[in-house]
Amino acid sequence: MKLSKKEVEHVALLARLALSEEEKERFRAQLSSVLEYADIINRLDTEKVAPTYHVLPIQNVERPDKEHETLPLEETLQNAPQRDGNYFRVPRII
Amino acid sequence: MEIYDLTAHELAEYIQKGELSAEEVTRSVFSRIHEVEEDVRAYVTLTEEKAYAQARYVDEQRRAGKKLGPLAGIPVGIKDNMCTKGIRTTCSSRILENFVPPYNATVVEKLEAEGAVMTGKLNMDEFAMGSSTENSAFFPTRNPWDLNCVPGGSSGGPAAAVAAGEAIYTLGSDTGGSIRQPASLCGIVGMKPTYGLVSRYGLVAFASSLDQIGPFTKDVRDCALVLNLIAGHDPMDSTSAPNPVPDYTSFLTGDIKGVKIGVPREFFGKGLDSRVADVVRNAIDKLADLGAIVEECSFPYAEYALPVYYIIAPAEASSNLARYDGVCYGYRAVPEKGEKYDIIEMYMKTRSEGFGAEVKRRIMLGTYALSSGYYDAYYLKALKVRTLIKDDFARLFEKYDVLVSPTSPTPAFRFGEKANDPLTMYLSDIYTIPVNLAGIPALSVPCGFVDGLPVGLHLMGPAFGEGTILKVAYAYEQNTSYHRARPPLQVEKRPKPTVRLQEGGNHRG
Question: Is residue A87 part of a domain?
């Protein structure tokens, strides 16, 4: 599987990564070689095989619907890169 | 022999009897840290003051006649991807360089409740992505057995710290071999428990269906004791298993007569260093001498594990790491002088400046595998092949109690040796990765040396079969002496490293 530069740029945008020209070319080559290697799994017939998303036989784990203490506001905000009163401040969205 | 050379169970006995105080043990470990850390560089953050306070508290408790926990007063280091309240938790990444968690990971809570003494936070490959600790955004950690070699990864700091006497035991995390491979390369015991046995609450997520926390220790008894402390159901982790937890030390009988051991021939094929193969074969002969029934077997899907892993793990990582957006915590890039950015530009600049090369590579790979048009061909296909691998193990465990292989195909390698080719580096985990895909437990125990560098024997068991693995590992260890070897790190005698290392090595390659 050989990736094109355009595909690399598309994936970078989806991943919210700004890549330099040099990074684009390096990732294009490296990802192509990893994907080429990974292609051996397509030799296997898996038509009747179910996927394993995770290994434990537990599903839909719920906690009891009871109130409990949450993190205090100050601690919740203590790592904010930018804060405005009791809000996380971000650049303009719309 | 120095105090820091002893095992946790030896020290715990001295402390319980009052022959050593927790403070003396802590002092010995910190003086060792100050002696060798300049060369080993296992720690990102030291918590010396907190450690002494915890040690003194344990000593007071003992003097007051209170019953102490089994590992009370023993110095432990924590991999820097487990949250510690009020103590920086960086994941060895620029993006979390100044992150101070407002809460403790469940494992940290459990250790503190038992009187553990925390020495500090240990270096790792950034976000646990790597096999050499060269991907730390801060500095690489060196292997105490040869300072020119890597300690393995991603838990290189936790492994090197135990091997060098800079902690009595440590906690690491294992997504594809990140506990077992560095344990093997540093000559100590490392275990990845069954998926769900140990709570992951407060562990910074890499690949959520594969990650698991586990111990690094100097011997198998310590491993069982630490597992006793950290295992068990946690309502804060919805993937935590509700199974009862046995006393793992009860399996350490030394008797393995009649235990059925399978040796998958696919784990001894191309790519395995022949000297490592010889050492591991000798270890397997030893198991047979001790009365185990050893048989060669086949694991037909073995060769597919690595490609499956390098689709699933990056796919999960790309999703997990989407949270680093510069909004609620972590690094946020500032706009160029005189410019303004909108939110999308802020995300992109933050992530591009905050993540290192390997993390970006895996996010790209995972995003690609999950993207429209490739999801079925890569991600879904990989999940199906994962089922085949899981079934392979299930079939083998109908016949065998334990499977054995080398932990790593080579002993510790030199800095830079594999850093420029991601695929070569990924092959370091070829024997450990299948275990994570199937969610089963496995352990690496020291089984010899190649040119003065340690080699590990890899023991794999069925889900929740930790007891059997520990039993076999213990019998092997008690009949050999490799676990008593300590690296030649004496300050005067120690050969100075010849390789010079750069800071922040992960922004290349």
Answer: no
DSSP state of B344: H
CA of B274 to nearest chain A CA: how many angstroms apart? 24
Q: What is the CATH number of the domain that holds A27?
A: 1.10.20.60
pLDDT band at A32 (very low <50, low <70, confident <90, very high): very high
Question: Is B399 among the residues known to form the active site?
Answer: no
B190 closest CA partner among B207, B208, B175, B169: B169
Tell me the HSE value of B469 on the side-chain side, using a 13 A CA sphere: 29
Q: Which of residues 38-57 of A touch B (CB under 8 A)?
A: 38-42, 44, 46, 49-56
Task: Based on the residue annotation, tell me whether B257 is a catalytic residue of this protein.
Answer: no
Question: Is A93 contained in some domain?
Answer: no
Where along chain B do its domains lie? 3-300+388-491
Is position A49 within any domain? Answer: no
For residue B241, list chain A residues with Cβ-Cβ distance below 8 A.
Answer: 56, 58
Phi-psi region of B133 (alpha: psi -120 to 50; beta: other; left: phi over 0): left
Q: What is the mean pLDDT of each run of 10 residues along chain B (509 residues)?
A: 96 96 98 96 98 98 96 98 98 98 98 97 98 97 96 98 98 98 98 98 97 98 98 95 96 98 94 96 98 97 95 98 97 91 94 97 97 92 98 97 98 92 85 98 98 98 98 98 89 60 55
Q: How many domains does chain A have?
A: 1
Q: How far apart are the first and last CA of chain B?
A: 42
Q: Which domain holds residue A26?
A: 5-43
Q: Which residues of A touch B343 (CB under 8 A)?
A: 90-93
Q: Is residue A15 in some structural domain?
A: yes
Alpha-carbon distance of B440 to B312, in angstroms, equals 17
Token readout for A11 is 């994936």
Q: In terms of pTM, does the model score above 0.90? A: yes
Q: What is the ipTM of this complex?
A: 0.96
Single out the catalytic residue among B21, B92, B154, B444: B154
CATH architecture of B3-300+388-491: Alpha-Beta Complex (3.90)
Nearest to A52 among B381, B383, B426 (CB): B383
**Residue of chain B whose alpha carbon sits nearest to that of A55:** B439
